[in-house]
Amino acid sequence: MDYFMEQVINGLQLGLVYALIALGYTMVYGIVKLINFAHGDVFMVGAFIGYFGFSSWGLPWPLAILVSALCCACLGMLIERIAYRPLRYATRIVALISAIGVSFFLEYFCSLKFMFGPNYRVVQRPFDEVYWSIGGVTISNIQVLIFCTAVCMLVGLQYLVMRTKMGAAMRTVSFDHDTARLMGVNVDRTISFTFGIGAALAAVGGVLYAIAYPQIWTFMGIMPGLKAFTAAVLGGIGLIPGAMLGALIMGQAEVMTAAFISSQLRDAIAFSILILVLLVRPCGILGKTQPEKV
Amino acid sequence: MLTVRNISVYYGAINAVQDISFEVKEGEVVTLIGANGAGKSTSLRTISSLIKAKSGEITFEDKNITTLKPHQIVAMGLIHVPEGRKIIGSFTVRDNLKMGAFLRKDKAGILESMEEVFTRFPRLKEREKQLGGTLSGGEQQMLAIGRGLMAKPRLLLLDEPSMGLSPILTEEIFEIIRTINQKGTTILLVEQNAYMALQVAHRAYVLETGRVVMSGDSNVLKDDKRIRAAYLGEIA
Ligand SMILES: Nc1ncnc2c1ncn2[C@@H]1O[C@H](COP(=O)(O)OP(=O)(O)OP(=O)(O)O)[C@@H](O)[C@H]1O
Ligand SMILES: [Mg+2]
Question: What number is the average pLDDT over the span B140-164?
């Protein structure tokens, strides 16, 4: 039973990291109907910047997370500006190909020697891992950190989207660009902002991931990226609560499979879920048949 | 107040609007009438800068707005209520109205405008917390106009406000348009319902396949033989 509870907590930890990535997919999809395939690579860049921040630049780790989030927000906005905006009203497939191009570019460019290099790096954690036993269940300070950070970011995001003017602008743009324009919304700026927020969340996810699973390399974004994408589809792409729900389910499914069936099956189960959702309920758990956005 | 000079608009190779000119003076209701595909909506979309004209010039209150962005035009008080209403389905009636005041900073003034809209459309007040997507067509049209009014328009562009409404509701909407104008808002009205449009408008322009083919005083046009034959359903 305790072993089971520990797995639930491990699943929660993974699921919350996925949630931070999945939100970027879903927000961007909601607002420009584009699967931003470079998003997983922004997560990777975030992990590296955070790592450099606390190990090479001597920043306190919370500051390293912040710096990583800010840099990636700029990166996300830059990607949108260069690779997506010129194609915004072109056929969907064109922008999708551009997204895949950006993804490859980030992976291979970052692998160059003068960037992050092609090798795995072991992350020296900025603090020691401490375990606590609560009623027989062991949890670590890293899990607590991930839990608190992720929950704060998710609550903050929900507040931003539902309660602020920028959030209202985002939801209106996601409804219809021209309608938003006629209300006086600066659509370009709103889209840019959405990419920035999504990238910042992924960056935070990346740094937390690097601290929790302390090994990073330039292709590390692919798998979590695909799984977070699956999570977003599972919950209902375009829906923020859907992305959170989908990510939590994905985290549990993966950890439970590894713990009770076989750890070799953990990736297979993730993608079986994707295929199953696409076959049975393509609009996702929370999605309506007419998919709603953001 | 608004001057449109020789604008031409293309969708790809399709020339939707060809060298059109018209003007709206302060305090007027002016209508653009014409059949399906005549270029009425395209003209309005060009004024609010949703599409760029290939040539020509648009001035609003003596300022050239041809190259401005849509949100800059909204900020000047030129408000466009689009064809098809475009009510945000997942927003409540109240939030849709608030969205109309997006660029306004005066909180108290916004609440005041909201009350004015609710007095003008009591039906919206009753449905204040209902989602926009659950309103009937007529209610959505009222909401669309109300949302336009929330921006405190100097000039209001209305694209087919009577579309899909029953005769009684159409009468009601046109009555509202008249009172909005009497309260000091200038209106450019696009309509297929030429009969009703000519009733409320001071002046009218008749569009045919992207060109202005006739223009003048509504009362004069109403009695014109060709207009009566083409748009008012009379046999010439
Ligand atoms: N997005 C578009 N792409 C291509 N052609 C378009 C587009 N929108 C309009 N058109 C064409 O431009 C012409 C003018 O269209 P517009 O919508 O301005 O007509 P309208 O007078 O508003 O008609 P209606 O009364 O049916 O609304 C039409 O021939 C139409 O087919
Ligand atoms: Mg039209």
Answer: 95
Distance CA B94, CA B80 (A): 19
Query: Among A64, A78, A108, A57, which residue's Cα sits nearest to residue A199?
Result: A78
Q: CA of A280: how far to CAs of A13, A81, A234, A276, A293, in Å?
A: 28, 36, 11, 6, 20
Q: Which strands make up the sheet holding B63-64, listed edge to edge?
A: B14-24, B2-11, B55-60, B63-64
Question: CA A25 to CA A39: how far, in whole Å?
Answer: 7
Q: Is residue B224 part of a domain?
A: yes
**Same domain flag for B126 and B63:** no
The pLDDT value recorded for residue A289 is 60
Fold classification of A2-280 (topology level):
ABC transporter involved in vitamin B12 uptake, BtuC (1.10.3470)
CA nearest to A170 within chain B: B99
Residues A67-89, mean pLDDT to the nearest whole number:
97
Per the structure, the complete domain to which residue B195 belongs is given by: 2-77+153-231
User: What pLDDT score was predicted for residue A12?
Assistant: 95
Are the C-beta atoms of residues B1 and B59 closer than 8 Å to each other?
Answer: no
Question: Which listed ligand is nearest to B38 at the C-alpha?
Answer: 1
pLDDT, tens only, A46-70:
999 999 999 999 999 999 999 999 9
Task: Tell me: do B190 and B148 sit in the same domain.
Answer: no
Contact A178 B75 (CB under 8 A): no
**Complex-level ipTM:** 0.94
Q: Does A165 touch chain B (CB under 8 A)?
A: yes
Is A215 within 8 Å of chain B by CB? no
Question: Is the residue at B84 inside a domain?
Answer: no
Q: Are B32 and A143 in contact (CB under 8 A)?
A: no
Residue of B nearest to A179 (CA): B86
Does one domain contain both B175 and B142? no
